[in-house]
């Protein structure tokens, strides 16, 4: 549990904010120097997400998506804007959202809102989103705030909407990273939080073809 590794909650969040303010607003910066994995990541995410989209009973619509921890909009540009009519972006770093407006190009005109906010304080508009995509950012939330945020996301979904989480998973327990002030949870810890938030797992799969020197990456769809 994060309570065992996060000694000072306020410092945990402020240190992360300071870390990201020093990171260049580039794809390589967003991916911690692993910009070369972007294509593999996006391809895997698109294949996973498209299983849920479409028309018919239980299918998820394509009118509006939310990109959480959006950075400069790498996922918004390459995954969400090609699939959804409108995308909202939320990130704690103002400079990243400013850069997004040029990085996204003309397609950025279909970004509805740029929210500058930490996820621990962010409240999605109720009933707005078909898909809420949360990638490589849950480690910046304590367990309690993670549960609360997922509950708010659930309220932010349209009928048949889904929450997708894609993130690193530890082999065992919860591991603190003092450099960027984040935690990496193992899958049982992630599952426990999702259950506490009242969400069911619809699908779960490991991202293939990533470097061996990073934690495994898991993608989950929740409702």
Automatic annotation (TrEMBL):
InterPro entries: MeTrfase_NTM1, SAM-dependent_MTases_sf. Keywords: Methyltransferase, Nucleus, S-adenosyl-L-methionine, Transferase. GO terms for biological process: methylation. Pfam families: Methyltransf_PK. The keyword Nucleus applies. Its EC number is 2.1.1.244. GO terms for cellular component: cytoplasm; nucleus. Its main location: nucleus. One of its GO terms (molecular function) is N-terminal protein N-methyltransferase activity. Coiled coil: none annotated. It catalyses: N-terminal L-alanyl-L-prolyl-L-lysyl-[protein] + 3 S-adenosyl-L-methionine = N-terminal N,N,N-trimethyl-L-alanyl-L-prolyl-L-lysyl-[protein] + 3 S-adenosyl-L-homocysteine + 3 H(+); N-terminal L-seryl-L-prolyl-L-lysyl-[protein] + 3 S-adenosyl-L-methionine = N-terminal N,N,N-trimethyl-L-seryl-L-prolyl-L-lysyl-[protein] + 3 S-adenosyl-L-homocysteine + 3 H(+); N-terminal L-prolyl-L-prolyl-L-lysyl-[protein] + 2 S-adenosyl-L-methionine = N-terminal N,N-dimethyl-L-prolyl-L-prolyl-L-lysyl-[protein] + 2 S-adenosyl-L-homocysteine + 2 H(+). S-adenosyl-L-methionine binds at residues 69, 74, 91-93, 119-120, 135. It is found in: Nucleus. Belongs to the methyltransferase superfamily. NTM1 family. This is protein N-terminal methyltransferase. The gene is NTMT1.
